[in-house]
Write a structure and sequence with these properties.
By secondary structure, the protein is an alpha/beta fold. The protein has helices at about 1-20, 25-45, 60-80, 100-110, 145-160, 165, 170-185, 200-215, 225-240, 270-275, 280-285, 305-315, 335-350, 355-360, 365-370, 370-380, 385-395, 400-410, 415-420, 425-435, 450-455, and strands spanning about 55-60, 85-90, 120-125, 130-135, 190-195, 265. Residues about 245-250, about 320-345 and about 450-460 have low confidence and may be disordered.
């Protein structure tokens, strides 16, 4: 029975390869042969290709889908010529969280390439701060997402609540933390490959080294030696952001991972041919917008998250009398698709819309300087309780209903709200978080915003 099964699977893999080659241009097939040769050299020769493990970061753009298809073609081509082929570890990344539509799109691609049943392929996804087996349905928000939720809320309230800062370079630390977890698996990868071009990888590495130096990280975070070491350092920074209010502060970065260094598998000279506009999109059924390909560093971010946050912010900052009434899903005149998406963005972190609006106003920082304006714009019925709100944030006695309102409206415990109110933050955390607020998700410079003003007002150096 095993022999019959293996023969059937071999026939299926051959059919998949033939379909892939049929949808490639002549230049792509030539580049594929060069890619195969480089894989054999990177493995140390044909005799070692069976133990060579390649980690590919699977983003939400067409470039990532095309690269995975090309790597699958290389894997199956080698398997037809040799008894073994390289192993493929696919890590699906969509931060802050992958919604059902994104996961279903990935699942369709994996089915077309027949990856699910292949023991030489490991399909994984980033969920919270963990790397878990891939599945087409997102799980309910659990404890592992509470840390990400608190980190986002604390960052917005303490440092910068602009959408570009909230969903900016801070998320790259989360990505590095997940990649580091994947590289620390029982069977770690030998090399990492991505569709991000070399010039943007250099921008990312420069930003990473600068951020590590600014945060005072100690250790040989030399990316040209080991990507796992760099990911470990950035993952340590991610933990520092999440525990920014810890009284003890963060320690130094951990030890250097043992074993052989994990390197980037560079194929930049082949990418123009391998990833050109092609018939592979039709075969894979790519459902992403073409303009997403123009921003490779944002390929690992939910493309709708920033748009939704901008729309929510614009609507929330309007005078209350001029705002249109909130439209509920299914009601006449409402946009069911848009409303559901907005709710889903909050569900990613377990944050409701009231709490999202609250962080966009940042009403508790600088001894509640913006609290009265927040109440006037969003909670006019609470203006009468303004003195009690200040008392609660100062740690003084006040009605329990006032404390409950603060916790429910912000989504944060009262202790953290009081720390935000007082501006209590370690100097190293200030430096790190302010630096993160200066770059968007593309790692482009953001003009100075709330971060610097809050540091001065709070008396931080």
């Amino acid at each position: 029975m095993t022999a019959i099964h293996d023969q059937a699977m071999h026939y299926i893999y051959q059919q998949v390869l033939e379909r892939l080659l049929k949808h490639m241009s002549k230049a792509q097939r030539a580049s594929l042969q060069l890619l195969i040769q480089r894989l054999l050299v990177a493995a140390g020769g044909p005799e070692y290709i069976g133990t060579f493990r390649l980690l590919v970061l699977q983003g939400c753009d067409r470039r990532s889908a095309r690269l995975l298809a090309i790597l699958r073609a290389a894997q199956l081509s080698i398997a037809l010529r040799a008894p073994v082929t390289f192993q493929l570890q696919v890590l699906v990344v969509s931060l802050p969280v992958a919604d059902s539509a994104t996961l279903e799109s990935h699942e369709r691609n994996f089915s077309v390439l027949f990856l699910q049943e292949d023991p030489r392929v490991q399909l994984q996804m980033v969920e919270g701060r963990e790397v878990v087996p891939f599945r087409s349905r997102p799980s309910a928000a659990g404890e592992r997402r509470l840390q990400a939720r608190d980190a986002l809320l604390m960052f917005g309230h303490l440092v910068d609540a602009r959408p570009e800062a909230l969903l900016g370079s801070r998320l790259h630390l989360e990505l590095a933390d997940a990649v580091g977890a994947a590289l620390r698996a029982q069977a770690p990868a030998d090399a990492l490959v991505t569709a991000v071009p070399a010039r943007l990888r250099r921008r990312y590495l420069a930003w990473a080294r600068r951020t590590l130096r600014l945060a005072g990280a100690q250790g040989p975070h030399r990316v040209h030696q080991c990507l796992s070491t760099l990911a470990q350092g950035l993952g340590w920074l991610h933990g520092s952001v999440g525990g920014a209010l810890d009284a003890q502060g963060g320690g130094a970065a951990g030890v250097v991972p043992e074993g052989l260094p994990v390197r980037a598998f560079a194929i930049d000279d082949l990418l123009p041919h391998l990833l050109e506009v092609q018939q592979l999109d039709l075969m894979l059924g790519c459902g992403v917008e073409a303009d997403q390909d123009a921003w490779p560093l944002a390929a690992f971010i939910d493309p709708m998250a920033l748009t939704q946050l901008h729309e929510l912010r614009a609507r929330s900052l309007e005078p209350q009398a001029g705002r249109p009434a909130l439209r509920l899903p299914g009601k006449p005149g409402g946009s069911r698709h848009g409303d559901v998406q907005q709710v889903q963005f909050g569900k990613a972190y377990g944050i409701n819309q009231t709490q999202l609006v609250c962080v966009l106003f940042s009403p508790f920082a600088r001894q509640g300087k913006n609290l009265e304006r927040f109440l006037q714009c969003r909670h006019a019925d609470m203006l009468v309780a303004l003195p009690y709100l200040h008392r609660a944030l100062q740690g003084k006695t006040c009605p329990e209903a006032v404390k409950d309102w603060l916790v429910n409206t912000s989504g944060l415990p009262l202790g953290q709200l009081r720390a935000i109110y007082d501006g209590r933050l370690r100097l190293a955390a200030w430096r790190l978080m302010s630096n993160l607020a200066q770059r968007d998700i593309h790692l482009r410079w953001l003009p100075p915003g709330t971060a610097e003003r809050r540091r001065s007002a709070a008396g931080q150096p």
